[in-house]
Amino acid sequence: MPMELEQWRACWARAEAAAEELRAAFAALGMAPAVCRTLRPIVTHQGRVYVGIGQLPEDAARMVARALSPEGATVGGDAGQSARTRRDPAGGASPRTESGIP
Q1: What is the pTM of this model?
Q2: Which among 12-21, 69-78, 91-100 has the top mean pLDDT?
Q3: What is the rounded CA–CA span in Å between residue 1 and residue 10?
Q4: Which residues fall within 8 angstroms of residue 100, CB to CB, at 6 or more apart?
Q5: Residue 73 to residue 17: CA distance in whole angstroms
Q6: Confidence (pLDDT) at 6
Q7: CA 56: distance to chain centroid?
Q8: What confidence tier does 31 reach under pLDDT thresholds 50, 70, 90?
Q9: How far apart, in whole angstroms, are the C-alpha atoms of residue 36 and residue 72?
Q10: Is the dihedral of CA 15, 39, 58, 92 positive or negative?
């Protein structure tokens, strides 16, 4: 059954607001405006509200993963090592992540 126009507009407004909040969060992480533009509001024919993230460059995806991870949690393929601090082969702490983003 098709959605009424007013219902669609209300859902679209919610989707746009959520996308804008996520854009602001991405910008606060220091992501390029081009990455923020990949975020799109989506409303399904059933009225479900989503934000499409699109394709993120690898460094942007790692920034999001670090921002969402609790302190000390492992992100990526380095089991047992914090995503915030990688260990170098000599056993010292490296201030940079694998992607080169501090």
Answers
A1: 0.66
A2: 12-21
A3: 17
A4: 59
A5: 30
A6: 95
A7: 8
A8: very high
A9: 27
A10: negative
CA distance 46 to 77: 38
pLDDT band at 97 (very low <50, low <70, confident <90, very high): very low
- DSSP class of 41: E
Condensed to tens digits (0 to 9), the pLDDT of residues 55-90 reads 999 999 999 999 999 875 665 654 444 444 444 444
Cα radius of gyration (the chain):
18
Residue listed under structure tokens 């009225």: 47
3-state SS, residue 61: helix
CA-closest candidate to residue 78, choices 68, 65, 67:
65
For residues 27, 33, 35 and 85, what is the CA-based torsion angle, rounded to 10 degrees? -40
Residues facing residue 31 across a β-bridge:
none
